[in-house]
Amino acid sequence: MKCPFCNSDNTRVLESRAIDEGASIRRRRECADCTKRFTTYERIEQSPIIVIKANGDKEVFARDKLLKSIVRACSKTQLSTLVIDGIVDDVESEIYKVYHREISSNELGEVVMRRLKAADALAYIRYASIFKNFTSLVEFIDEIKELEDSLLGLNYSPNLKEELIDEFIPPKKIKKKK
Ligand SMILES: [Zn+2]
Question: Inter-axis angle of helices 160-168 and 121-131, to 10 degrees?
C-alpha cells in the first residue's frame, strides 16, 4: 500500500480491526518514510447504493461525502476523529445491510441523525438544523428543548442555544412574531 502523503511503498500496519461484524477490515497504517498515518479498508465489493434526492436526482452513495457532512456537524464537539470514523462506519454498514440497492436522502439523513443523537446532542442538533431545514425558530427551539438535558450534561456553553441559532439559522429564514 502506497503512502497517500509521500507515495512511498514503505508502509506498515499498526492495527487491524474487524468491523461491520467481520464483513470489513480496517487497518491503521504508518509510513516509515514520512511517519504520517492513514487508514485503509478491506471489504467485499458491493454494488453501489444509489441515493435518491428529494427532487428525484440520483447519485452514487459516497463515504467521503457522508464523512464530510458528519465532520461538519461534529465541529466544536468533544467527539474524536476516531469516534467520528466509527459513526461513519456504522451508518455505512447499516445502509448496506438494510437498504441494499437504493436509499432516499431522507432515509439516509434519518440514519445519520439517529447515530448522532446517540453520540452527541450538539452534533445531532447541528446536523438536524441543516438536514431538516427548520424554517421557524419555534421549530428549532422545540428540538433543542427536547435535548436540553443531554446538552447540559455535556457541559457546553450556557449560551449554546443562542449560539446555535446564530450559527445555523440564517436571519432571513427566521419568521419572527411581531
Ligand atoms: Zn509517507
Answer: 30
CA 36, chain centre distance (Å): 24
Instruction: With a cut of 90, say whether residue 37 has pLDDT above it.
Output: yes
Report d(CA 129, CA 132) in Å as an integer. 6
Query: Which residue's entry shows cell 476523529?
Result: 81
Residue 34 CA, ligand 1 centroid: distance in Å: 4
- Burial of 46 by CB count in 10 Å (0-12 exposed, 13-18 middle, 19+ buried)? exposed
Cβ contact 33:40 at 8 Å: no
Q: Cα(16) to centroid of ligand 1, in Å?
A: 19
pTM: 0.64
101 CA distance to ligand 1 centroid (A)? 37
Residue tagged 469516534 (cell numbers): 83
Q: How far apart are the C-alpha atoms of 43 and 64, rounded to whole Å?
A: 16
- Whether the pLDDT of residue 178 is over 50: the answer is no
- How remote is the CA of residue 5 from the centroid of ligand 1, in Å? 5
CB of 66 within 8 A of CB of 94?
no
